[in-house]
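Researcher: Let's continue the batch. This sequence belongs to Shikimate kinase, and it's 197 residues. Same format as the previous ones, please.
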Amino acid sequence: MSRDGPTTRDDRREDLQRLLGHRPIVLIGMMGAGKTTVGRRLAARLGRHFVDSDEEVEKAAGMTIEDIFRAHGEADFRAGEVKVIARLLKDQNIVLGTGGGAFINPETRALVKEAAISVWIKADFELLFQRVSRRSNRPLLKTANPRETLQKLIEVRYPVYAEADVTIVSRDVPQDQVASEVIDAVLAHLSNETPNG
Ligand SMILES: Nc1ncnc2c1ncn2[C@@H]1O[C@H](COP(=O)(O)OP(=O)(O)O)[C@@H](O)[C@H]1O
Ligand SMILES: O=C(O)C1=C[C@@H](OP(=O)(O)O)[C@@H](O)[C@H](O)C1
Ligand SMILES: [Mg+2]
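Model: Same format as before. Here are the structure tokens for Shikimate kinase:
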């Protein structure tokens, strides 16, 4: 990277595409972290196609996630989720937003590690809780004490999310800034991965 003048957005995008090749970028992390919304912006910035595993599971099942959980239960949802992610990861040049439990499933995790660069979008409990409280479309949080449920999921999941290739912390900043931080963090990771990078 020897250029005159400041590094522009386009330079970073080109550097990233060169180091990444066709590998998908997969966003993982808790419900409310911003995988879906930040993922869309990230894909637009990189000129990549964005896919969301929840949306694709819903399309494949012809039902909403809430209805899948209600009619068939979580185990069936996870079985569908792993199949959908395996299919989506065959497409290169994508940004894939996953559901919060996807990377916790060992089979899904192995697929992601094999085919993609994974990015954990990590966020503070209060921020996550505030965001997920805005909508009631997450069946796992329909419990007597959703704060406690979210806290328990965090305790179980964080050590697994920590296996991601890259971690970024999402604070209360605009989604475009979070997308920018993902680009910087993935670039830094890939520069270390490349022997002469
Ligand atoms: N950086 C951010 N700033 C403000 N709101 C955000 C940010 N990231 C996500 N959100 C909001 O939080 C909610 C959850 O985001 P979403 O992308 O659906 O998360 P996930 O897919 O990880 O569950 C949405 O309402 C989204 O608009
Ligand atoms: O954390 C989880 O287990 C889930 C997260 C949801 O996706 P988001 O993380 O995009 O909300 C969705 O897959 C489902 O409700 C289960
Ligand atoms: Mg999502």
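Researcher: Any comment?
Model: The radius of gyration is 17 Å.
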